[in-house]
Design a protein that fits this description.
- By secondary structure, this protein is of the alpha/beta class.
- The protein has one domain: Rossmann fold (3-Layer(aba) Sandwich).
- Helices cover 22% and strands 32% of the residues.
- The protein is built from three helices and ten strands; from the N terminus they run ββαβαβββαββββ.
- The protein has helices at residues 16-34, 49-56, 108-118; strands at residues 4-5, 8-14, 40-45, 64-71, 83-86, 96-104, 124-132, 145-149, 155-156, 172-175.
- The strands form two sheets. A six-stranded mixed sheet has the order 5-4-3-6-7-8, sandwiched between helices.
- A hairpin with a 2-residue loop joins β1 and β2 (8-14).
- α1 (16-34) crosses α2.
- The longest helix is centred in the first third of the chain and has 19 residues, at 16-34.
- It is globular.
- The two termini are 17 Å apart.
């Protein structure tokens, strides 16, 4: 198993069984809230793909899935500037939408994507995040469905990465 990334040791923060229990719980809540509403679950790439894949397996109704991707790390971009790289292709007007994110951090990217989705006039929009790092929040945004609140530093695993590495780890780890 991977024990370090870019020379930094990994320390387990959230185990795979803990994640699995929480994802099941979130899937059950979404099922209860949306059973007869024909929602679209939209994963935020790249980090949210593993969480979304596991989450939809615990949603007990037919569900449509789509993806969006944003970037704030391209060369020449100012801090806080976000660009839409890939937009959802599913028509969202009048639809219930759940935006699925691996980690709610500063909130800048998620707030940007929320405004993009709301511009398409959905019937409703809720946010589902596996991890929330409120201590780094720069924009007032919260998840409607939340897995874990954490305080600790830079994390990798279960979709989150460090320089595109570590997404495949089954748990969530802190880089020491």
């Amino acid at each position: 198993m991977i024990t370090e990334i870019q020379g930094r040791k990994l320390r387990l923060l959230i185990s795979a069984p803990e994640i699995e229990r929480k994802v099941k719980e979130l899937g059950k809540r979404i099922t209860e809230d949306y059973r007869d509403k024909n929602p679209v679950l939209i994963g935020i790439l790249k980090g949210g793909f593993i969480f979304l894949a596991d989450l939809v397996r615990h949603v007990d109704f037919n569900v449509e899935i789509d993806f969006v991707r944003a970037s704030s790390y391209k060369e020449g971009m100012e801090p806080g500037e976000v660009e839409l790289v890939t937009d959802a292709v599913t028509p969202l007007k009048g639809r219930h939408v759940v935006l699925v994110e691996d980690m709610l951090d500063t909130g800048i990217t998620l707030n940007f994507l929320k405004s993009v989705i709301l511009s398409k006039r959905p019937a409703s929009l809720k946010i589902c995040a596996l991890i929330d790092k409120k201590g780094r929040r720069q924009v007032g945004i919260d998840a409607d469905y939340l897995g874990f609140d954490i305080e600790e530093g830079f994390i990798v695993g279960y979709g989150t990465d460090c320089g595109e590495m570590g997404r495949n780890l089954p748990g969530v780890y802190v880089l020491e």
